[in-house]
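dude i think i finally got it to work??
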Amino acid sequence: MSRAAKKLTDGARHAGSRSASARPPSGSGFTLVELLVVIAVLSLLMSILLPATSAARRAARTTVCGTTLRELARAWTIYSQEHAGTLVAGRPAKVAGTNNLYWVGNGWKFRPRWYITLGASVVIYAFNEPSTKDEHQCIDNRLLICPETPGWVSEKNPSYGYNFQFLGNTRMISGTQRFINFPVSDSHIVGDTVVAADSLGTAASFPPVGRLPNSPNGTTGDATADVRTLGFHGFMLDPPRLTPTSDRCDDQNPDYRGGPDARHDGKANFAFADGHVRATTPQALGYGILPDGTYEFGYEFEKTQVTNRRFSGTGRDDDPPSIVP
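look at this
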């Protein structure tokens, strides 16, 4: 082969080599269309999985809340056994001439609310250092705060309310030195009686759009706003059917009532005297709620619609005890 022909042959060989190396390897990498398909599939999976994950988290919070109420129901029973069958009051009366201090397991506390008193029975102390003067102390123990309402730390405006009107009300009957309903014996309380539940406080008297955020300090400083705040006086739970002469969770604001908070996907957790806890709608336990979400006082409805049967302790639709002689 001549020298010129050899050069042409070598040049063609090198050109072919460069052309082959310039082509991308077949079958490797993603085309733009394939990448878009993968992104679309991942987006679809996320849209399916995220709501399921969120629902699972809400269900877990409902379970944790129910566990707390179950412990409080257990403590409620222990307390009555330790006090000759007398049920815990919603709050001890303010007695003149005394310091009004009560032992709550890890210190003395000024007129402790019911759940603070009961916590001592199951070693769930509300405060690291109970105050002998402060009535609006912030709760330290997260076990006493519903995980759906983590900021509700005011001892007056907490997550849970007590069926105080039927189970223990130490406020005084008007013009007398007699308690409205205390002491109450456990001997006549049927097992399906509500002891405590997730609580809205006086915010129950307003539609959801008219309610204000919970006040962790106990008050906003504005009395007209306080009654709208979530959980205000929520440590007391009013029964479904009130009367014109029955007490209210906030006795200083009788135009407003309390009620359970359906904070768990439209349901509230309720603890019962026999120790079980049930997540259900407030209506299922006798409450009357208007279409706008406002809780009715109950005496405007027929008794077949609003009933105290699950709150009275007797299994009957009894009126709450009267505040007048």
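Residues 56-285 form one domain.
im so relieved honestly
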